[in-house]
Amino acid sequence: MSSCDTCVVRNRAICAGLDNREIEALNHIGRRRMVTAGEPLIWEDDDSLLVANVIEGVLKLTTSTEDGREQIVGVAYPSDFIGRPFGQTSSASVVALTDARVCVFSRNDFDRFAREHPELEHKLLERTLAELDRTRSWMMLLGRKNASEKIATFLLEMSDRLAETGCTPAFGPAKRFSLPFSRQQVADVLGLTIETVSRQFTKLKNEGVIELPSRREVEILNRGALVALAG
Amino acid sequence: MSSCDTCVVRNRAICAGLDNREIEALNHIGRRRMVTAGEPLIWEDDDSLLVANVIEGVLKLTTSTEDGREQIVGVAYPSDFIGRPFGQTSSASVVALTDARVCVFSRNDFDRFAREHPELEHKLLERTLAELDRTRSWMMLLGRKNASEKIATFLLEMSDRLAETGCTPAFGPAKRFSLPFSRQQVADVLGLTIETVSRQFTKLKNEGVIELPSRREVEILNRGALVALAG
DNA sequence: GGGCCGCGTTGACGGAAGTCAAAAAATCGA
DNA sequence: TCGATTTTTTGACTTCCGTCAACGCGGCCC
To answer: Percent of chain B having pLDDT more than 90?
Structure first.
């Protein structure tokens, strides 16, 4: 029995649609791995040596300038695929935000397997196209929205994305959730500074739009107001 | 004889790698079309009805807010693929920047054909992964670079991208080129205002880094300075 | 419990880029 | 060729957000 049989993302990740023989073969070239919060899995500009499926936890994809400025260019949740197949180097670092469990493959092994299994490549294509859509809508946010619009959009996105993972499976967006980001990381997602993020959070709290029970917890009190602010 | 036989992007677009029979079949479901400068080809949020290969010309991909702010989220050059296969709606509008020639397919026809031709899907996957890389590095620019870094990065990217299309085929980056963008469109690419773009251009001209022979023409006098400014 | 450390908040201030307005330059049609 | 229109540039002013600095709070270890 392969570990895929008990995998919680078996039917959502790109492995979905593979038959038992294929899963067995894929299982053979992959292995499970824990990544603890803060630990890097892939380095920017490094040879792209591995790719992975996220089983559990949240990871950030980042690019940095030489002088240390950082931009989070993507966030990977359970069932998401990370890494850069069919390429020499990966354009972003991948670092765990929470303790995470991933299913890793050497890039070469994965590339070979994928080329032999069109159904898998198709799933990967659909996923990549969807990620490109999401990334492009984030460009709108980075280029054209002001701080309060950015924060409102971010909170709504979080409430959608984190709803799926919680114990309540997809009963609409989460009203209350625990951010996988520090304030600095929120700033790195939105292209702001930590101070601006903090001020905007405080402002929303004072206006009664959200509640902040603890550093990482957010409760949305007035979703309509957030939607209006998000623009 | 199919029109693909004389297609200038035949060996660079996703059609590369298909054999004669397959090209014939693909040619059967597609048709060539002109798009004049300023004319839209695909509307944001509309049902994704068509996809296309760019044969000649340059097109912009944009997203807009309700109140009219616009962000250019991608630029399509000859041999690039545009549109959203395997999805209901496209997340960006596509509008021609210059007169352009494209090879269009109905999305349904294309989806069906692609699923039957793994080699084509693979090409599309490679292209989409590369586009995602490029988009992510653009997020860095939008989120973390200041106006002069943005302009410098933009000019270098233009000089690379436009080198390939000119009569001089890929002798390194172009030293002098004609922008396919108005000042407003440059602003929409970089997340700036037209006034800021204009001031930065003037500044670079005064510093002797570039020359501006006409509105659309740019000549790079000091590439090293641009690289340094781009950060 | 107390002190330390990292993270987050708040305040004061300045500057980069946005806004508004007008002049200048290029484009276009008659 | 000339005037009309659009695009770009330039200037004056404003504002949003970044920077710098101090403070507060919670967690953690001894």
So the answer is: 86
